């Protein structure tokens, strides 16, 4: 059966803004009039930015409850720590899929080397909502180095994908997700053409962060900094655009179709649950990050 290619329903243009300790992000979600694309709550692109020595900034200690954060590093280095005692570092191509669940205090900062010497930083953080039944699940981490992220290329070598979640071109992600999610980094060269299956019951978007691409049928140009929200279908087609080269994130997920209330770092189903999250954080029930001893 011929797949039904999803059309571009409409485009969203990302705008730059300051977050965390003062780092600049390009954010296509949420924007005015679009609070979420269920189950995706936030898409932030950090950089690319070149830091001079002593200038690199990050996100100091902050709490999360009720959702998952996905950190995907393209260039640079970050270090993270949390209230459960977990510590680690991420470099180019690495992924951290953190399930905040019932609550955790977390920090993500440039590595000591980045802070001292400076350097180029580029990456993404995606927030994925959890269904009501998993809002208070135990926090967990999946730290996956670049070498373990499956990659594939079309037969002609003109379209390449890194599969963080889901499946494409015959390879399947190493990361396990609580609900069905597709998270793929596609790069197309001139005349590149790729079609990937996306379940009909998923919501899907394509965010172009380099060059431009033709998305859907007959093909709409999506330029750098634009996110295409896709309509109904069971496949997504990506082709190289007018400039010949393009790179984009393909994100898709099964929606929860539940009430959602968010305030800052907490995403729950009711206002009462948000109030309880603040109370738990303020009374120390989410813990604190212990000082690191060298």
CATH fold-level assignment: Jelly Rolls
Specify the overall morphology.
Answer: globular
Mean pLDDT: 93
What is the gyration radius calculated from CA atoms? 19 Å
CATH level 4 superfamily: Jelly Rolls
User: Using DSSP, what is the number of strands?
Assistant: 25
Count the DSSP helices: 2
- Bin the helical content: under 10%
Structural class: mainly beta
**Total domains:** 1
Summarize the helix and strand pattern as letters.
EEEEEEEEEEHEEEEEEEEEEEEEEEH
* CATH architecture annotation: Sandwich
CATH C-level label? Mainly Beta
What's the story with the biggest beta sheet? 10 strands, antiparallel
- Please give the alpha-carbon distance between the first and last residues: 60 Å
Beta content? over 45%
Secondary structure blueprint with pairings:
Elements: E1 8-13, E2 15-19, E3 23-29, E4 40-51, E5 59-64, E6 67-75, E7 78-82, E8 87-90, E9 95-99, E10 104-110, H1 112-117, E11 119-129, E12 140-144, E13 151-153, E14 159-165, E15 167-168, E16 171-172, E17 181-188, E18 193-197, E19 203-215, E20 220-223, E21 226-230, E22 235-240, E23 246-253, E24 261-263, E25 266-268, H2 271-282
């Amino acid at each position: 059966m011929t797949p039904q290619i999803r059309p571009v329903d409409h485009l969203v243009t990302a705008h730059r803004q300051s977050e965390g300790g003062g780092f600049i992000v390009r954010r296509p979600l949420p924007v005015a009039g679009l609070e979420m694309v269920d189950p995706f709550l936030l898409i932030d692109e950090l950089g690319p930015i070149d830091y001079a020595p002593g200038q690199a900034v990050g996100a100091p200690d902050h709490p999360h409850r009720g959702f998952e954060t996905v950190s995907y590093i393209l260039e640079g280095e970050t270090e993270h720590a949390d209230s459960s005692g977990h510590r680690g570092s991420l470099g180019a191509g690495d992924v951290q899929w953190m399930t905040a669940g019932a609550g955790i205090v977390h920090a993500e900062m440039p590595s000591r080397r980045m802070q001292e010497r400076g350097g180029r930083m580029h990456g993404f953080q995606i927030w994925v909502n959890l269904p009501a039944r998993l809002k208070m699940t135990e926090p967990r981490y999946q730290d996956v180095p670049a070498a373990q992220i499956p990659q594939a290329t079309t037969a002609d070598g003109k379209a390449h994908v890194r599969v963080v979640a889901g499946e494409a071109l015959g390879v399947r992600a190493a990361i396990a997700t609580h609900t069905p999610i597709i998270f793929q980094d596609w790069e197309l060269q001139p005349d590149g053409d790729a079609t990937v299956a996306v379940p009909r019951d998923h919501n899907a978007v394509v965010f172009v962060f380099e060059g431009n691409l033709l998305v859907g049928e007959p093909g709409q140009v999506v330029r750098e900094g634009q996110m295409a929200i896709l309509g109904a279908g069971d496949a997504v087609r990506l082709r190289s655009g007018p400039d010949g080269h393009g790179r984009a994130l393909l994100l898709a997920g099964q929606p929860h179709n539940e009430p959602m209330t968010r305030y800052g770092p907490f995403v729950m189903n009711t206002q009462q649950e948000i109030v309880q999250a603040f109370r738990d954080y303020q009374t120390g029930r989410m813990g604190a990050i212990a000082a690191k001893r060298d």
